[in-house]
UniProtKB/TrEMBL annotation:
Keyword Glycosyltransferase listed: yes
Name the UniProt record assigns to this protein: Glucosyl-3-phosphoglycerate synthase
Catalytic activity as recorded in UniProt: (2R)-3-phosphoglycerate + UDP-alpha-D-glucose = (2R)-2-O-(alpha-D-glucopyranosyl)-3-phospho-glycerate + UDP + H(+); an NDP-alpha-D-glucose + (2R)-3-phosphoglycerate = (2R)-2-O-(alpha-D-glucopyranosyl)-3-phospho-glycerate + a ribonucleoside 5'-diphosphate + H(+)
Gene3D superfamilies found in the cross-reference section: Spore Coat Polysaccharide Biosynthesis Protein SpsA, Chain A
Ranges where the Glycosyltransferase 2-like domain occurs: 3-122
InterPro entries on file: Glyco_trans_2-like, Glycosyltransferase_2, Nucleotide-diphossugar_trans
Protein's organism: Chthonomonas calidirosea (strain DSM 23976 / ICMP 18418 / T49)
Glycosyltransferase listed as a keyword: yes
GO molecular function list: glycosyltransferase activity
Enzyme kind, highest EC tier: transferase
Amino acid sequence: MLSVLIPAYNEATRIGQTVLAVKRTLPEAQCLVIDDGSQDATAQRAEEAGADLVLRCPHRGKGAALQAGLRLATGDILLLLDADLEETAAAATALVEPVCRGEADMSIAIFPKTLNGGGFGLVVRLARWGIRKLTGHTFQAPLSGQRALKRELLEQIGGFETGWGAEVGLTVRALRLGARLVEMELPLHHRVTGRRPADVLHRAMQFYAVARILLRLWLTPHHRPEAATRKQGAP
């Protein structure tokens, strides 16, 4: 069975379309929305769109929301999606295919190169550099929240890191276990942050969170088996 975990914070204008796209494309999957203490109608819109379960949690960050959802997920394969994908969430379901076919233990979505974010790219560069230093592998989308993976792998990893560094922790710990990771470019779009003071503060907090997780991973060295990382379709 497949469980779809969608952490959401103040996404009332987008979560409905995201859930509808998931339910239309994967009608048999368990669709879980974890409302991370939103101050708007995110939870209500998710329920109206047909989410199988909407979990209301205190605002503790993305990683904590995913961990809360994991406790209620029943699938042996997990699909992680951001709440702001809207109708393009249907395309993200392609991430499940290489995991189901046994070709990868985790698949990661790359957004189209034409999708320009509004940030400065510092957090992405930090995450890419840190993962490369810790594992020897380079990822084009180190912070992508659109991922499919085996539940067994996530349990071996020990669950999700807290905060905004959840994806970095997943990647590093999976590679240290010898897991096979694949990146796939998919026709997705999402809300991008700009350069307003609030957006700059958001980026600074994200940078700090990723830096903390990288430091913690650096201080806990692990024997690294050979792990495969490639783009979908590569030999």
